[in-house]
Amino acid sequence: MTQKLIIIGAGMATGRALEQLLKAGGDYDVTLFNAEPRGNYDRIMLSPVLSGDKTYEEIVIHTADWYEENGVTCRFGEKITSIDRAAKTVTADNGDVLSYDKLLFGTGSNPFIIPLPGHDLEGVIAYRDLEDTERMMGLGPDNKCVVIGGGLLGLEAAAGMAARGVDVTVIHIMGHLMERQLDEAAGYLLRKALVDKGITVKCSANSKEILGENGKVKALLLDDGTELPCDLLVMAVGIRPNVQLAQDAGLAVGKGIHVDDQMRTSDDDVLAVGECVEHDGAIFGLVAPLYDQAKVVAKTLMGEDAQFVQKELSTKLKVTGCDLFSAGDFAEGEDREDIVFRDPARGVYRRLVLQGNHVIGAVMYGDTADSNWFFGLIRDKTDIADMRDTLIFGPAYQGGAPSDPLSAVAALPRDAEICGCNGICKGEIEDAIAAGADDLAAIKATTKASASCGTCTGLVEQVLAVTLGDDFVIPAAASVCGCTDMTHEDVRRMIKSQKLTSMQAVFQECGWKTSCGCHVCRPALNFYLLADWPLEYQDDPQSRFINERKHANIQKDGTFSVVPRMWGGITTPSELRAIADAADKYMVPTVKVTGGQRIDLLGVKGEDLPAIWKDLNDAGMVSGYAYSKGLRTVKTCVGTDHCRFGTQDSTGLGIKLEKTLHGAWTPHKLKLGVSGCPRNCAESTCKDIGVICVDSGYQISIGGAAGMDVKETELLLQVPTEEDAIFVIKAVTQLYRENAKYLDRIYKWMAKVGLDWITEQIEDLENRADLVDRFEISQTVYRHDPWAEHVKKADTYQPLANLALEAAE
Amino acid sequence: MSDWIDIAALDAVPARGARLVKTAHGCVAIFRNAMDEVFALDNACPHKNGPLAEGIVHGNAVTCPLHNWVISLETGMVQGPDEGQVTTYPARVEDGRIKLDVAFLKQRAVA
Ligand SMILES: Cc1cc2nc3c(=O)[nH]c(=O)nc-3n(C[C@H](O)[C@H](O)[C@H](O)COP(=O)(O)OP(=O)(O)OC[C@H]3O[C@@H](n4cnc5c(N)ncnc54)[C@H](O)[C@@H]3O)c2cc1C
Ligand code: HEM
Ligand code: SF4
Ligand code: SF4
Ligand code: FES
Question: Which candidate from A331, A338, A522 shows the least CB-CB separation from B36?
Fold first, then answer.
């Protein structure tokens, strides 16, 4: 006997179920309800419709003719509003009551709308159906749109609109895009590709409020006060299974409608498929598993046995020019290994996550041709022991293709600046080579590249090698560490010329061989990035050595020492009292006067650090950065104030210098001295930067040291006023920050680039002013007291948990 | 049999960082790598007891802050030319919370 089947929702899942049921010859009289005023279409192809690559007609799956031929009664644009399971009837929104033998739910999901103030304004939409798509298609080059959500849907929406010339900004709350599918490295590449399409991407951004005018959206306001004007605001922040109707009908519902392996709900005559279901704790947001469910539900309706089994899923983003793929699991779990391959020349990144002899996760960007092969390895749990060494290169390379250390340089565009001093681009060097220059000396002579400070020598040699091939052999130079083949100088030039503003950018563009660097390269990169991109890059404490991370020097017995700044070596009775009080209160065993004219409290317990810092802060003192690769102290003599030989106010200048330089990070430690006359009581001539005051002004000399090497400073310049002296010192500090290799003190850097070059740079008044400008920009971020900040997160200095009291029976 | 006890939220430990858990028998360092996996190891370097929690975490290894020995977070083995091993304990993340196996406490009690 023909049974009555009512289907709620004409989506992709029920559409496939219907096809399967008809193919199997199911004896059902089918009535299909759909709230959307149309039948089943390929929802995942809405993005190509949005970008204009397809029309709606091309993505229809079931036409009116198809429904008619198959005898399906269609009630499109009609909603089921309630279900009476006892009577086995459903009620439609026009009041019709229909009876069923079997009922199939396919209600899909609802986009989640963040309840920000203003979320109900006109012009705030989700991205789910044709109506939403049409709203977006109504925008053009004169419009602005903000998309909240940097996941699959949000990015497809953004790219689709950008293709129509709309000015699009994507706001994403996490640190990198598509964080559920991609790791940071692939997220970086994706961001870069989207930015190239003209899309503005803001990560780690928190939306605060949607601003409107006359009931219509006008702008999005972020937590940090930024206002982003927009004509349309698209929220693509996730979906929630649409379970209301099922819940009202008394079916078992969790995150979704509970179904068993046969896709039956808690009522045997009611079945469910698609995004509305929850199976074995999981909910679904991609089509592949839904189609498996559809097959199973058709069998169940046929009275045949079938089981739905969850499988590994993979994701691809449908944005032209962004080839990415991710599958499996690359979060959580022990005993895992990573294999990373990067080819900066082609913008390729691949990472495999192995557990034992199995691939359990894969992320690919740029070249996804082999993605199916890798996906197969994951799905089939293939034992890869035999091909482990060459696995990452894909199926075609089972012989092994070594990564090319020169590919990063080969990838540079012709207008990439290689020599910063003389403004020489890669193209000019290539042209010189074409004109016959075939070694470094010839390049120097013809283009001036690497003829000044010389830090770009490595890159120039690589351009020679890339252009001349085997005819040029690069002299061996030490690379930063085992993670890369590039030298410090090369990496630094890349950071500047290619505007690399994040660690991920450096890893990718310079072809790092590890996924997140090591203890040798990370501190160096952290310094280069913050020195070259102070506003764009955010300091990463996890890439600093412990002394700098905690602003304290750890000692053998686990205690720390605390050194407050005494500007220019000057203190006051009240500061001294506060120091004495702190020493008493925290039972500091040793109070010592340092060689840097200040007081060291040695032997403070780790847990007490935030408290003692707070006490000293409250008395007006700040961290002395006593263990930093940054400004340490400015040692002074008493100068004109008290000394009968003094020519200038050396103490005053010292205080001013310490105040203006304080907080600045430098390649290595930076110590200054200011003496009031050539008797040099402040020992200025063995400091990194020393000032000797004379009647006619200030002699500034650099490159001194008094450590394992003892060096006397060499005269840089003499200037007439105190103001000039401060200006020159800031400029030379910035020059040092921008050019020296990490861990080179000024004297080492000077030995490489030469005092003449440094003097030339500083004597050029325009250049001097630019250096000072850049220094000041950086100081707007870094001239602050780390103690005050660490006091705010005092709890992180305590143990995470104390299990000492817990019984261990 | 494993019996997992709740320690803290995953977010309490910075990515590529570590925090300490105090036990009656000294401190255990809980490390978190860039992929949000966690590892528990004795907070003492086999070389000269350097505080590993203060080191730089890279990949699934930590570099001791005192003399740069590199220690695997998974096995506790010292990498490269140096030799030694740090005791490791079962740790995992569940629903954004860090869990340790209580068996580890017992292990420490007898150690
Ligand atoms: C823009 C976009 C791009 C996507 N891209 C991909 C992709 O690349 N790959 C991938 O695998 N997946 C993708 N997806 C997800 C995929 O489209 C969905 O997983 C799939 O369409 C869900 O199918 P469904 O049948 O469960 O629900 P739907 O297709 O949402 O169908 C549910 C239908 O039920 C109707 N309905 C709800 N309640 C009632 C009621 N009470 N009465 C009557 N009708 C009702 C709704 O109107 C709706 O038409 C994308 C989704 C979107 C929006
Ligand atoms: C790795 C090598 C070094 C280590 C581990 C080290 C360690 C220390 C320590 C623990 C202190 C605090 C001691 C105190 O306050 O009296 C200190 C301060 C000091 N060190 Fe070093 N030091 C090193 C290299 C140097 C070198 C090469 C010099 C000289 C150029 C130097 C000069 C000073 C001075 C002048 C102070 C007092 C600084 C201040 O007041 O901030 N140190 N150092
Ligand atoms: S350096 Fe000159 S001015 Fe300064 S204290 Fe010594 S003698 Fe006096
Ligand atoms: S001179 Fe040597 S012992 Fe003295 S503080 Fe400096 S590093 Fe330590
Ligand atoms: S104590 Fe760890 S390396 Fe020396």
Answer: A331
